[in-house]
């Protein structure tokens, strides 16, 4: 790792190294004391951190750049989150979503339990959006209200609300 350090930092480093040398000579010549040892440790620490001082100064003065970078990353994260939300919500076909909405209304109305509707009910149950009050295979093939046999779960209601809000956002974007 190579870095270019300015002349002033090299000058400070050289002065500290010189002072460290004098203190070491004093220590080894028998004039050692606790203060000399403390000074040696302090200067050694300074010598380690002086090359990093420029980085600290740069961070202090480039605060706006850091804030701008953080804001930029937050925008990208928000955009990505919105895309994932849309992908998740729009992953269920429109017909299945309509079925879920009709079940949520509590009054599904007349129905014919076709193979397609049966598959939709199994899927909606398997992902946790509805629960059957009796087995799906036991639901009569024709009836006046499918909502008598299946009910929506809390997760299903949350899904409907989320999809509704995303569809409203999409419609605002088109206008």
Give a topology summary.
Layout: H1 7-31, H2 34-61, H3 63-89, H4 94-105, E1 111-112, H5 115-126, E2 130-132, E3 142-143, E4 150-152, H6 154-174
Antiparallel strand pairs: 1-3, 2-4
Helix pairs in contact: 1-2
Top keywords for this entry?
mainly alpha; Arc Repressor Mutant, subunit A; two-stranded antiparallel ribbon; 6 helices
Architecture overview:
The strands form two sheets. Strands 1-3 form a two-stranded antiparallel sheet. Strands 2-4 form a two-stranded antiparallel sheet. It is built from six helices and four strands. Helix 1 (7-31) packs antiparallel against helix 2 (34-61). It starts with 6 loop residues before the first helix and ends with a helix. With 175 residues, it is mainly alpha-helical. The mean pLDDT is 81. The chain folds into two domains: 7-61; 92-174, Arc Repressor Mutant, subunit A (Orthogonal Bundle), CATH 1.10.10. Helix content is 71%, strand content 6%. The protein has helices at 7-31, 34-61, 63-89, 94-105, 115-126, 154-174; strands at residues 111-112, 130-132, 142-143, 150-152.
